[in-house]
Amino acid sequence: WDKAGTSYETAAACHLKNSSPHEAATAYQDAANAFKKTDADRAVLLYKEAVAVQIDLGRCTTAAKLQKEIADIHEASGNLNAAMEAYQTAMKEKYRMHAYGDALLVI
After folding, report:
1. Tell me: the pLDDT tens digits for 50-93?
2. Residue burial 44-74, b: 16+ Cβ < 10 Å; e: rest
3. How many Å apart are CA 8 and CA 45, to the nearest integer?
4. pLDDT score, position 93
5. How far apart are CA 98 and CA 16, in angstroms?
């Protein structure tokens, strides 16, 4: 799993250099999924990278789902404060997307 995660992480960096943020976000998520099985801390860092790229792309719902993955990892490791913070961030991201979408409907 570690080799797969490292490969996906390298691919994500290449996609960013080639101005392909969607592919980078996907590769970061794939890397995090792999590391989730062996290295939870690294998985969290990679999910955070994917979240940042998704927010930059305006995909707040996807970012919120990834943020929930972060919360789930923290909860499974017993770090309840970090889990609560991550869940709250996920909720804010999802609601921010809805507010933006509602604003577009009004305009």
Report:
1. 999 998 898 888 888 898 899 889 988 888 888 888 888 877 76
2. bbbbbbbbebbbeeebbebbbbbbbbbbbbb
3. 13
4. 63
5. 27
